[in-house]
Amino acid sequence: MEKLRIEKRIVFIENAKDGDTLTIEDKVYTFQDTLTNVGGNVQIGTTKYETAANLAAALDLSGVPGGQYAASTVTTWGLSRIVIEVKK
Predict the structure, then answer these.
(1) Which of 54, 24, 26 has its CA nearest to residue 41?
(2) Which one of 9, 43, 44, 78 is CB 3.0 to 4.6 Å from 35, fit for a cystine?
(3) DSSP string, 11-41
(4) pLDDT over threshold 60, residue 3
(5) 8 A C-beta contact, residue 85 and residue 9
(6) What end-to-end distance do the CA atoms of the chain give, in Å?
(7) What is the DSSP string of 54-68?
């Protein structure tokens, strides 16, 4: 039997703006210039690459909680099912 691979793809063409949101199924991630501790909030970096890294950290609860994303964030995703791409 062939294994199926299910993934979601997120593409950053430009950096997020304060208040932009991303919904993955029923979970909403909100990008913020000034990070507040509400689950799903993600710090906007100085570049789209930093912002993408912060989102990746929020999705698998790695990195710096309270710095890259809200410490109260919970997730069931993990990066094994999500591809994050940053366009030049």
Answers:
(1) 54
(2) 43
(3) EESS---TT-EEEETTEEEEEESS--SSTTE
(4) no
(5) yes
(6) 38
(7) HHHHHHHT-S-BTTT
List all residues 6 or more positions away from 54 whose beta carbon is below 8 Å from its beta carbon. Answer: 42, 43, 44, 45, 63, 68, 69
Strand partners, 30: 21, 41
Instruction: Give the domain ranges of the chain.
Output: 8-86
- Alpha-carbon span 83 to 19, nearest angstrom: 22
Q: Which two tokens stand for residue 48?
A: 């789209």
The Cα angle at residue 29 between residues 49 and 12, in degrees rounded to 5 = 30
Q: Which residue has the higher pLDDT, 71 or 23?
A: 71
Ramachandran category for residue 40: left, alpha or beta (phi over 0 → left; psi -120 to 50 → alpha): left
Q: How far is CA 36 from CA 10, 22, 39, 68, in A?
A: 23, 17, 9, 11
**Which pTM value belongs to this model?**
0.84
